[in-house]
Amino acid sequence: MVQDRPATLDVTDYEAIEAAVMETERGRWFLAEYARRQRSAEMAELRALLAQIDAKLPSGARPTPPAVEAPPPALRIEVAGAPPVPAPPLRLQKPASGLTLAMIDAMPAIERLALFA
Asked: Burial, 23: exposed, middle or buried (Cβ in 10 Å; 0-12, 13-18, 19+)?
C-alpha cells in the first residue's frame, strides 16, 4: 500500500534516504527493480492511451510519420595513397549523469521514458 509523502519530508530528506538505500547491494537492487516496474507500468498506461486514441481515429485518417532526414555525411580527410577510413558510427548522447531519483520523479513521464530509450 502506497501512502502519500509526509508533509515534513523535503528534497534533502528524500536524497538522504536515497543515499542510504544506495549504500547496500540490496538497496541498489530494490531501487533498480522499482524503476523497472515503474517504467513498465508507465509504458502500459501509454499503450492503453495510444490504443484509445487509435480507436477514435477513422480508419483512413491515420497520420503518416514524418520523413526521417538522413544524417549529414561524415567528414572525411583523404590522404594520397592511404586507404579510406570508414566514418565512425553515430552515437546517441546519454543523459547527464548525476540525476537523482527525486529529479527523475519530478520529470514528466515522457521525459523519464526518454532517459531509458
From this structure: exposed
